[in-house]
Amino acid sequence: MIKYRALFRIRFIHTLQYRSAAIAGMVTQFVWGMMEILAFHAFYQTDPTAFPMRFQQTVSYVWMQQAFLSLFMLWFFENEIFESITSGSIAYELARPMDIYHRWFCQSIANRSAKAVLRCLPIFAIAFLLPAPYRLVLPPTITTLFLFILSLLLSLGVVVSVSQLIYISTFYTLSSIGVRVVVGAIGEFLAGGIVPLPFFPQPFRQIAEVLPFAAMQNVPLRIYSGDLQGLDAIRSLLLQIFWLIVLFAFGKWWLKKALKRVVVQGG
Amino acid sequence: MVYWHYFCIHLKSQLQYKVSFIFTALGQFLGSLTAFLGIWFMFTRFHQVNGFRFEEVLLCFATVLLSYSMAECFGRGFDLFPQMISNGEFDRALVRPRSLIFQVLASKMEFSRIGRLLQAVLVFFYVIPRSGVNWHLGTIVTLCLMIICGSIFFSLLFLVYAAISFFTIQGLEFMNIFTDGAREFGRYPFSIYGKQVLRILTYVVPMAWFQYYPFLYLIGQRTNPLWIASPLVCLVFAVPAIWFWRVGLKNYVSTGS
């Protein structure tokens, strides 16, 4: 456990160094969030009765999504890992007394959370101070906040477990670009990255709700905004735990199988 | 002529890696497909936004997507310009007897953008007969001008992006607000984002001139035939963009190696 904690710290501090990149990124995300909200606002004004959430909930959804973007983005990968697999330097890593699945997992989580820490605070600072309809508001109860944090962590776990599968697939395909683009584009959409799931028309919504992608940003963002409450929220949390366990276990099993095929040629 | 040679070389070299080419194009296609699905889902629920119908909005979506992918295909050199500066490649360009903008343009072309382009063309095929636009010479010319001026406008934005790196060496992510942002948010007529945003996009970063204003003429909300020429207004942006590039060039200090 100590070695993973050290690894986490190294990675976390490493990413914290890129502060100017974070500021530039933050401005972009802020404008992005605002434009997104203005578009939803136009639809809301056109027909408030057809709006599946309260407008305030959508606003909170969008701001929290921007604030924690780096935890959720499916198209973000650790290039180092791909390189180590394609170049063969993975052999060194295998020689270390560390489980490689856990190592990657730890590295990804550290990087993503350092990015999120840098970016979320300034976005909060602005989004909480905006004028009324566009403002980010706190959830109604402490319990909601607690459930939100819990499901935020779970969704980070699910996102990372899915990217692990893509790293592992590189052992077979060597170039992961195909899998990456498909999972990146489709997964982002099904996770509610472009339009929140409640806006999906009926058959699509039902299908999307049970897929593992729905266990990503969809759940924490909707719990925070108050769209998922009570039993629904608990059920979604359980579904997240289920997917996390399944994906994690499958990833570990698959990696073990993939590593059996690896032949290290000296040199 | 030299550009044509470059064109062929880039095309040949990129087709050497067929699988990677196809997958990158597929990724582009899927990326804009999800944007399209997003619009579709919103319209199955709301049917219209600020009085614009689905087919009308798609006209905006396809125009912006097509111009953007054209600009990205041919103006990709500017996108990669920060690298060109930091690895010293630009110093080599400076000593060659050709215009610099030409050399940067020719340094890279990205044909995998065809994925996005294809999507835009498909949407046009779907939408042109269904949009309710009265197609006559005026409207056809307007649409063509929208696409051409849009492509030039996005290329100018890439030029500004490149010019910034004269000062900062690395590219700045905030320029994405205007490039990627315009692509993402240009899927709806710019007026839906409210008066303030429309004002900025009319007078500061004049992209409403190739999307919103000629679009109103297309769907018949404006009738004065002068609006046919409105996309040309956004070309005024060339003046500050090229001026900025020149200033940057004057200030340029090589990074060394």
Gist of the model:
The complex is a heterodimer of chains A (267) and B (257). Chain A is mostly helical and 267 residues long. Chain A is 74% helix and 0% strand.
Helical content of chain B stands at: 55-70%
Number of domains of chain A: 1
> Stretches of chain B where pLDDT falls below 50 for ≥5 residues?
none
- Helix fraction of chain A by DSSP (H/I, runs of at least 4): over 70%
Tally the beta strands of chain A.
0
Shape label of chain A: globular
Structural account:
The complex is a heterodimer of chains A (267) and B (257). Chain A has 267 residues and is an all-alpha fold. Helix content of chain A is 74%, strand content 0%. Chain A has twelve helices and no strands. Chain A is globular, with a radius of gyration of 20 Å. Chain B is mainly alpha-helical. Chain B has one domain (18-251). Chain B is 68% helix and 2% strand. Chain B has a two-stranded antiparallel sheet. In chain B, helix 2 packs parallel to helix 8. The two termini of chain B are 32 Å apart. At the A-B interface, helix 2 and helix 9 of A face helix 2, strand 1 and helix 10 of B.
For the structure shown, list the relevant keywords:
heterodimer, A: 267 residues, 0% strand, B: 257 residues, mainly alpha, two-stranded antiparallel sheet, 13 helices, 2 strands, 2% strand
Describe the secondary-structure layout.
The complex is a heterodimer of chains A (267) and B (257).
Chain A (H helix, E strand, L loop, with lengths): L1 H15 L2 H28 L8 H13 L1 H4 L6 H9 L2 H6 L4 H28 L14 H32 L3 H14 L11 H9 L7 H8 L4 H32 L6
Helix pairs in contact in A: 1-7, 2-3, 2-7, 3-7, 3-11, 7-8, 8-11, 8-12
Chain B lengths: L1 H15 L1 H29 L1 E2 L2 E2 H21 L1 H4 L1 H6 L2 H6 L5 H8 L6 H17 L6 H32 L11 H6 L9 H10 L7 H7 L19 H14 L6
Antiparallel strand pairs in B: 1-2
Helix pairs in contact in B: 2-3, 2-8, 3-8, 3-9, 9-12, 9-13
